[in-house]
């Protein structure tokens, strides 16, 4: 049994797709199960759950988040605009250096700020949270970020950096500029990095220590996203981590998380077709109409189905996935762009019953696709964006 194989409704939707274009296919029932369970875990343990909109910009998913979660995390006022009436009465956390977020019709608005200048233009009705650099709260070899320091350590390019020279004065100046509206902190661990329960807890404790040092009685602590690493995405493991977190943070502090990728784990598939192939000494190379650079950014994928058309119907290629003993060969799947690193992945796979190995027109379905693929889905050099299908 192939554990990555899509459920029947999704497999049927994939069967109905054209044979000559790439597609991203999402199982909305799977997303709904996760959204409901994650929302329930947050409610049970007194942690607000905000949907990181950038992670899955699809109206059906925004609707699910509006129905089952506490609100939204928007990366910009433009992203929050998409909420429309769905923001009403909800909590919206927004990163907004421009001050334009005041137009968002949220019931409760928390704006993440990084400087006194941003505080000066923040709409008066918003609560303000100072962004702290995750890499400077819990330094360690696992710190990730866009800044490559001379020591080789990577640190975050976002947020105030506790511990750095002048950071205490910087924070104190921001609190003063906020005139009582700075309610706490916002920390996010990084774009695609996963966060462990221990790190989440250590980050919360470190943020509380920064507040103590400042003499600021915080009432808000938003720990951002990246919870997909907790128990490999199992919601039970998230619930246990939230319980521990809640116990470690005073009840006077409203706690929030902003999961993105976690909501879509196990829910997405991508479909590509072989358009060309060649044999190298140790591997086969197959070019797909599916491109990693255009259609699969930030994705950790695994092959789910190997299909070929027979008399107009898609059939599994037998003996390919998994490979029959002794017949496995490395197959490198690449995208169709001119970009050398446009590689989908390389796996050890077998031959079809008739001895064919991924002939032109055969179809590869990969699992493990999340909503960021849809968020980034684009074209390049004449390659079109992938067709997007959301299976109800
Ligand atoms: C501020 C913020 N919160 C939450 C998220 C969601 O992260 P993830 O999809 O890793 O859970 C992101 C993603 O980049 C983010 O920038």
Features:
392 residues; 27% helix; binds pyridoxal-5'-phosphate
Task: Give structural notes.
There is one protein chain. With 392 residues, this protein is of the alpha/beta class. It has 11 helices and 19 strands. Helix 8 links the parallel strand 9 (182-186) and strand 10 (220-222). Helix 2 packs parallel to helix 9 and helix 8 packs parallel to helix 9. The structure holds pyridoxal-5'-phosphate.
Write a short abstract of this structure.
The protein is of the alpha/beta class and 392 residues long. The protein is built from eleven helices and 19 strands.
Query: Mind summarizing the main beta sheet?
Result: 9 strands, mixed
Rg to the nearest angstrom? 23 Å
Distinct small-molecule ligands in the complex: pyridoxal-5'-phosphate
Number of helical segments? 11
Give the distance, in angstroms, between the N- and C-terminal Cα atoms: 24 Å
State which percent range the strand residues make up: 25-35%
β-strand number: 19
* Run of helices and strands: HEHEHEHEEHEHEEHEHEHEEEHEEEEEHE
State mean pLDDT (0 to 100 scale): 94
Q: Helices and strands: which structural class?
A: alpha/beta
Percent of residues in helices: 25-40%
Low-confidence regions? none
Q: What does the overall shape look like?
A: elongated
Oligomer: single chain
Question: Can you lay out the helices and strands and say which pair or pack?
Answer:
Blueprint: H1 8-15, E1 23-27, H2 28-44, E2 47-52, H3 59-68, E3 71-74, H4 77-81, E4 91-95, E5 108-113, H5 116-121, E6 127-131, H6 134-137, E7 147-148, E8 154-155, H7 167-178, E9 182-186, H8 197-214, E10 220-222, H9 235-248, E11 254-257, E12 268-279, E13 283-288, H10 292-295, E14 302-310, E15 313-316, E16 329-334, E17 343-349, E18 363-369, H11 371-376, E19 387-391
Parallel strand pairs: 1-19, 2-3, 2-11, 3-4, 4-5, 5-6, 6-9, 9-10, 10-11, 13-16
Antiparallel strand pairs: 1-12, 7-8, 12-13, 12-18, 14-15, 14-18, 16-17
Residues 52, 54-55, 73, 188, 191, 224-227, 258-262 line the site of pyridoxal-5'-phosphate.
